[in-house]
Amino acid sequence: MTDESQHERESMEYDVVIVGGGPAGLSAAIRLKQINPEISVVVLEKGSEIGAHILSGAVLDTSGLDRLIPDWKEKGAPVSTEVTDDNFYILGESGQVRVPNWPMPPLMSNHGKYIVSMGNVCRWLAEQAEALEVEVFPGMAASQVVWDGDRVKGVVAGEMGLNPDGTPGPQYEPGMELHGKYVFIAEGVRGSLAKEIMAKLNLSDGHEPQKFGLGMKEIWEVDPEKFQKGRVVHTMGWPLGKNAGGGSFIYHLENNQVLVGFVVHLNYQNPYLSPYSEFQRVKHHPMLAELLEGGKRVAYGARAITEGGWQSIPQMSFDGGLLLGCSAGLVNVPRIKGNHNAMLSGIEAAEAAAAALAEGREGDRLDNYDDAVRGGAIGKDLKRVRNVKPIWSRWGLFPSLALGGFDMWVANVTGWNPLGTWKHGKTDAAATGKAADFQPIDYPRPDGKLSFDRLTNVSFSFTNHEENQPCHLKLKDPSIPIAVNLPEYAEPAQRYCPAAVYEVVEEAGEAKFVINFQNCVHCKTCDIKDPSQNINWTTPQGGDGPNYPNM
């Protein structure tokens, strides 16, 4: 902790403070200025630049962009690769079966959507925001909430130069307090400020626990003869089988670049499962191997995904602010899409705040935002698919395809879900089983051509953390990894982390838990999946972390 009597923070006042320079935060900033150019708006981004921490599939449903900037094509948005070919396969170890498109509900179709780099889309959105005189500050990690009783008054951002023990170092900068009449939290999945606000104000009470997946992604340059611009492929089945839900995606973007990714639902039981190793294994399937052989991996990253959907959306408004986008959990799981809802939430947030500011209000609860999200396009999108995830979690892949598909079809036609609303039940952490009930999984060694070890791949995320700072991965009780998690769960942090942050090593005949925080790609999986809920992910100093070029 810093001594604030010696390091007084300056403060700046804004009408709206936005934490997070992703699609939700930037859309909110743009819409506020569209409504009233006199509204003062600041966007704080913890990455070294806008887009540096953005990782998404991504096939973009442009409904949010259409509403925000209808002439986006004329303005040069980096949204140009329209989906031309939409395929879904169920994989076996050595073959595959294609599921025809005709039995799928229309909402599942990707035709008319665009394959994009969301990092580049966000960079373009930031340009549009700055043209409207939004202040955009990258490299400014918002590390603390500024409270006024139970009202969120602002955030602390830009604190730099702490020693590893948390004391101010010689280059210490205390950061600034940025106060807003309203504060928008748009940090993305499992953000540290959103987590604090939700816990203090009990925003999840009466709602299902949030569910998550881990998404890992590589960008490949492939043989031009194998490249098919606009082609979209999704797979399920092998190698996960009954071990976990999830599957792969393969998107042919442009310039012979293919986006190859893998999602593992984090409610898996077997603590020996390694999501990263499953991702590396799927690339050896004949269908993927044929595409990637002779190609070159040029980037890697990982990020958690919210999967709870309709049932898990918390109360999104609170005194002084709002939760936007993935901070609220607005991803449509079967469609594997959330960027459109993130943008729509930013628009709804801006319109609610702008109306309040026009009435001379500040710091109150904008509950009409909750109403707009739940009763508008976002709610319609999420309600129709709300049972797919819990059916899959309870009964597996094929029942979810049949029952979930039936439920989606009826909801798509009538707006009514015949299966009602299924519950999610346990958190992903609580779903983790005891090691004694499972066998270790013998994963093949990476071959260095199609599959890679974690440390090698992390170097392709261009991750960097200043080493002389406090570890941003906080253990509530430092004894738990060895005393509890190792004997009971074989310490799964060694395996669920896709960046090799956590290790159990032997020193002087005793096991020791090691945190290599420099490797962290900010995916938040540890905060979500640790069975003892002992790891608290917090922000490192601003600008640190991955530097994704065009994820």
UniProtKB/TrEMBL annotation:
Record's Gene3D superfamilies? 3.30.70.20, 3.30.9.90, FAD/NAD(P)-binding domain
UniProt cross-references to InterPro entries, sorted A to Z = 4Fe4S_Fe-S-bd (IPR017896), ETF-QO (IPR040156), ETF-QO/FixC_UQ-bd (IPR049398), ETF-QO/FixX_C (IPR007859), FAD/NAD-bd_sf (IPR036188)
Q: Which reaction does it catalyse?
A: a ubiquinone + reduced [electron-transfer flavoprotein] = a ubiquinol + oxidized [electron-transfer flavoprotein] + H(+)
Q: What is its EC number?
A: 1.5.5.1
Q: Which PANTHER family match?
A: ELECTRON TRANSFER FLAVOPROTEIN-UBIQUINONE OXIDOREDUCTASE, ELECTRON TRANSFER FLAVOPROTEIN-UBIQUINONE OXIDOREDUCTASE, MITOCHONDRIAL
Described purpose of this protein according to its UniProt entry:
Accepts electrons from ETF and reduces ubiquinone.
Q: What would you give as a GO molecular function for this chain, any one?
A: electron-transferring-flavoprotein dehydrogenase activity
What the entry lists under SUPFAM superfamilies is as follows: 4Fe-4S ferredoxins (SSF54862), FAD-linked reductases, C-terminal domain (SSF54373), FAD/NAD(P)-binding domain (SSF51905)
Protein name, UniProt field: Electron transfer flavoprotein-ubiquinone oxidoreductase
Q: Which UniProt keywords apply?
A: 4Fe-4S, Electron transport, FAD, Flavoprotein, Iron, Iron-sulfur, Metal-binding, Oxidoreductase, Transport, Ubiquinone
**What species is this protein from?**
Paracoccus tegillarcae
Cofactors, names only: [4Fe-4S] cluster; FAD
Cofactor binding summary note:
Binds 1 [4Fe-4S] cluster.
Catalytic EC class: oxidoreductase
> Which residue ranges does the record assign to the 4Fe-4S ferredoxin-type domain?
511-540
